[in-house]
Amino acid sequence: MDLAILTEYRSGFVKLPPHARFPTVCLHAGQEPDPATGAIITPIYQTSTYVQDELGKHKGYEYARTQNPTRMALERNIAAIEGGPAAFAFASGMAAIGAVATLLKAGDHVVVSEDVYGGTYRYFDKVLTRYDLSFTYVDTAKVEHVARAIGPSTRMIFVETPTNPMMRLTDLGEAASLAHRHQLRLVVDNTFASPYVQRPIAFGADLVIHSTTKYLNGHSDSVGGIVVATRRDDIEWLTFVQNAAGAILGPFDSWLVLRGTKTLPLRMERHNSNGLALAEYLAAHPKVRRVHYPGLPSHPQHDLARRQMQGFGGMIAFDVGSLDAARRLLNAVRLCALAESLGGVETLISHPATMTHASVPVERRSALGITDGLVRISVGIEDIDDLTEDLAQALERA
Ligand SMILES: *Cc1c(COP(=O)(O)O)cnc(C)c1O
To answer: Could you tell me the domains of the chain?
Structure first.
């Protein structure tokens, strides 16, 4: 398919003003009133197939793995939000990463951020290595480490910024120019930042991935993933492989995420302001040893954060010194919910060493700085005073 047509098909046919600002794009892009009824909200097209007018003549929809209007509206919407020509929605963030991995062939090599999401590491290390793919994990905060890991079979650089839970950053502009000097793709998992805070395509990324489970849906009630692609060959391949492998996002979840992206800018403004306020509160607290948050001047890459991010997001990690102190804190919170995951409107608190990163070997954990006293918060959009009061009373017991 011609890329111009594909772009129009996936992102273009909404009557948005040509220079619509970000909140307007989030709210409207990819959606038009339902052609059958005028419904302002794209309906949940809960159907498996479509009746054809006559043999060989249909309305562009044949079978719902291949085409679904609700899913396609979401794909156009998130493509526009990330500033790319096309997006592909999948059943989970991991399924989205799996689809991107099909751009590789046996023998290929990938350079990966060393503190990449645990599920991504598990998939690369336990599944894809069986297909003769190889991975080198480096501190992508240092571009020279990435450069040194590139070899003749390298095809891709796969980064997360900020990383989980240490909040290390990768300079996206530097990573993109390095990748392109070596004819590699730069893939960015943008889940932690959200496209409100950071749009990697503007810095040269070739592919952007999200677990829509997190900030894009934002309401802790759906699991999904998306890939935004920029290269014509990648768009053609992902169009093919989304249908061929079939791990598509269902219509109800697509509808939920579409509802979520309408308020992305409003939610992220609050996540940003609550995140910064809570990080400052924690940094000044006598029981807190260290706070990892890119919005604090004490963060080693604070300048890069200011250049590359708009606000600093809602993810904070902080160290209370010991497993015992962390346990007392986590058992004392009332408003913050003790749970894995992130990016929802409600504040979640977790213990990386025993929860999200329990499967990471202890030596690797300590090399990354994930101590037993480290606590992670996904700051929600509650009133900031209620959050600081809850942490104050819990820290008293820590
Ligand atoms: C959650 C997450 C994933 C995986 O997404 P699922 O929707 O849980 O499959 C991938 N990357 C990052 C950074 C995540 O936080």
So the answer is: 3-262 (3.40.640.10), 265-397 (3.90.1150.10)
